[in-house]
């Protein structure tokens, strides 16, 4: 039986998702699965784009090839410079606002300014932050290392999974997926000063049956909002808007977004799924559809933009908004990010990473 980690829920999630991700030339290592925290264990961080299969999405002719960029795990825009987290090389790449390569910093290791297996990147005040599983690595915008420190998940969360880090005027927001054994919940805490945290919101997973667990229960989304922050589970009918004291002030619903169906796991993957479920005694709820999106962005005009699967094939994403202009301008890509109304899109092939930048503010 393949190994997917010690947690039986994580193993079941990985089996179900991997059974749908049928791509040529081997497994797609750096795919962003809709259930953001339930991927297979990553390969060695020094693997390059040559170890990935070609992108299943069409690469625009005008896209810029960046051979130095092996993968795009996360991206943020700060003072008209893109900061790109490359998990494959454990580097942060700096690009112009239009996407031209500038330079890179950090690297794979445990020395000063280095990190391993970066998960998230966020620009906060005048600091670039790379989050790993339990640490924050801090840099000046020019790449100078400022040291690192541990994060402090909620103490009542036995198995915390850092889902996202968001910059706000009041401090950093940390969104955790919390496995409590008998149930799963999403939590948001605010760090107002180093080591000082306030819990702001909690949302239990939306399993359809009491006592059942589904592989997408672990998905959590959070985003900065003019009134505070958005938070919830993408399979809920709506996301809640909270102010920075944790008070719910509004709801934003997304029933208009189409869900993609999940192909049934087949062959060995199906058998393994059944075997692990029986061995762990879990009540398994197998969904028929992917969640409608895996990430949400807020435009300067407060409109919401959702990152969703373009088809039932894992690894092709599109941006959706009720304003159809955005969906029409930005083609499906291997991954997509949005900051300050600017869209960063990336595609992979054997030559490296291709990128395009779309300014939606002036569109």
Provide an overview of this structure.
- Helix 1 packs antiparallel against helix 2 (267-280).
- The protein has a single domain (8-359), classed as Neuraminidase, CATH 2.120.10.
- The strands form six sheets. It has a four-stranded antiparallel beta sheet, with no helix packed on it. The protein has a four-stranded antiparallel beta sheet with strand order 2-3-4-5, with no helix packed on it. A four-stranded antiparallel beta sheet has the order 6-7-8-9, with no helix packed on it.
- 45% of the residues are buried.
- Helices cover 9% and strands 39% of the residues.
- The chain is mostly beta strands.
- The protein has helices spanning 8-18, 267-280, 324-329; strands at residues 64-66, 74-78, 81-86, 91-96, 101-106, 120-124, 127-131, 135-139, 145-150, 159-168, 171-179, 184-193, 196-204, 221-225, 228-232, 238-242, 248-253, 295-298, 304-309, 317-320, 335-339, 342-349, 352-359.
Explain briefly what this protein structure is.
This protein is mainly β and 363 residues long.
Count of separate DSSP helical elements: 3
Query: What is the makeup of the main sheet?
Result: 4 strands, antiparallel
Order of helices and strands: HEEEEEEEEEEEEEEEEEHEEEHEEE
Percentage of residues in helical conformation: under 10%
Radius of gyration: 19 Å
């Amino acid at each position: 039986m393949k190994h997917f980690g010690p947690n039986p829920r994580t193993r079941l999630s990985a089996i179900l998702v991997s059974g749908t991700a049928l791509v040529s030339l081997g497994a797609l290592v750096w795919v962003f699965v809709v259930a953001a925290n339930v991927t297979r264990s990553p390969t060695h961080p020094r693997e390059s784009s040559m170890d990935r299969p070609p992108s299943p999405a069409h690469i625009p002719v005008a896209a810029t090839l960046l051979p130095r960029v092996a993968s795009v795990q996360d991206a943020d825009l700060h003072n008209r410079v893109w900061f790109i987290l490359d998990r494959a090389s454990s580097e942060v790449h700096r690009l112009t606002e239009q996407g031209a390569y500038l330079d890179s910093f950090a690297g794979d290791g445990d020395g000063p300014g280095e990190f391993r297996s970066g998960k998230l990147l966020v620009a906060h005040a005048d600091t670039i932050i790379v989050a790993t599983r339990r640490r924050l690595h801090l840099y000046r915008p020019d790449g100078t290392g400022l040291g690192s420190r541990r994060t402090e998940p909620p103490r009542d969360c036995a198995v915390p999974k850092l889902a996202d880090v968001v910059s706000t005027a009041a401090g950093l927001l940390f969104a955790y997926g919390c496995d409590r054994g008998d149930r799963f919940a999403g939590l948001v805490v605010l760090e107002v000063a180093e080591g000082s945290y306030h819990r702001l919101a909690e949302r239990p997973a939306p399993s359809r049956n009491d006592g059942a667990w589904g592989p997408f229960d672990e998905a959590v989304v959070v985003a900065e909002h003019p009134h505070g922050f958005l938070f919830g589970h993408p399979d809920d009918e709506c996301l809640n808007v909270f102010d920075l004291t944790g008070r719910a002030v509004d709801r934003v619903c997304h029933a208009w977004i189409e869900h993609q169906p999940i192909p049934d796991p087949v062959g060995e993957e199906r058998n393994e799924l059944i075997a692990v479920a029986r061995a762990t005694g879990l009540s398994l709820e197998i969904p028929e559809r992917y969640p409608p999106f895996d990430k949400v962005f807020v435009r300067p005009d407060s409109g919401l933009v959702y990152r969703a699967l373009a088809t039932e094939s894992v690894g092709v994403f599109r941006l959706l908004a009720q304003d159809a202009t955005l969906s029409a301008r930005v083609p499906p890509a291997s991954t997509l990010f949005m900051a300050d109304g600017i869209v960063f899109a990336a595609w992979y092939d054997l030559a490296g990473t291709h990128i395009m930048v779309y300014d939606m503010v002036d569109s």
